[in-house]
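Notes from hallway chat w/ T.B., transcribed later so I don't forget. T.B. wanted the structure written out for a chain they're using in a teaching module, and asked if we could keep both sequence and structure tokens in one place. Agreed to drop them here.
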Amino acid sequence: MLHKIRVSAIQRLCVQDGPGVRTTVFLKGCYLACPWCCNPETIHYDQNLYFEKNSQVCGSSKICKRCVVYGGCQPKEHCLLGAYEKTYVDYEVNDLLSLIERDMSLFKKGGGVTISGGEPLMQASQLYPLLTILRQRGVNIAIETSLYAPHTNFDLLKDLVDYWLVDVKFQFGFISYIEKDKYKKDFELNLNFIQEQSQNNCLYRMVLSQQALPHTEAILKRLLKYQIPSLEILACHQLAANKYKQLGLSVPLFSSPSDEELKRFSKYINDKGIKTTILNL
């Protein structure tokens, strides 16, 4: 399956994922496991998670005996009652390309394709032929990434990318993990390239939870250390809580800062020389 691209979802008419109106492709798999992740189904590349869509019908019919849940051989996602939905599809490059090109008229008006995740750089080799074709056809390509990925993966794709959306991982509760992470050096190499070659085509973002607020100084220290010039701040939210429940996972305990707390944090970082904006989704 390694030649195929493992996709969790495709969303059209996106306006917050890069310049213009875009088609965003969410890939499965990530090197990190942020405890506030809003796409929990994308974290594990090989894990067969399922959305429980109609739990009230599960086990209600004789045909349920065919399902692996009840000792049968039929995969969950083949449920005839629609009780489960698989969280990814493996696409051949040409098949995914055909789906993306349905929006070519929008791309010609200043939009493009954004590859998100999960961590898109995990599937760099699978993405390379797709992005090469899109590039040849004049499609604007953006990648949303934490940059915590092997530099070899980043190096493979870097010349095919027009715009970077960098998810800054300086959130409370994760800083010490990141600092020790085996991809820390890769992160620094990847970030250094962007800052030298693509700074004008890069947007830095950070999710902020209420639990992070007492650690504002630690966050600022890292922003300054890595010379982040500007920052788009998103409030941590509970919109993914239902996803966690459907997947049978524990719902994260991170909570949203108040509007006033968000503004106060933004102003503090801004006053220290890092231009900030608050993104309201």
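Follow-up for T.B.: The chain is about 30% helix and 20% strand. Might be a good example for the class.
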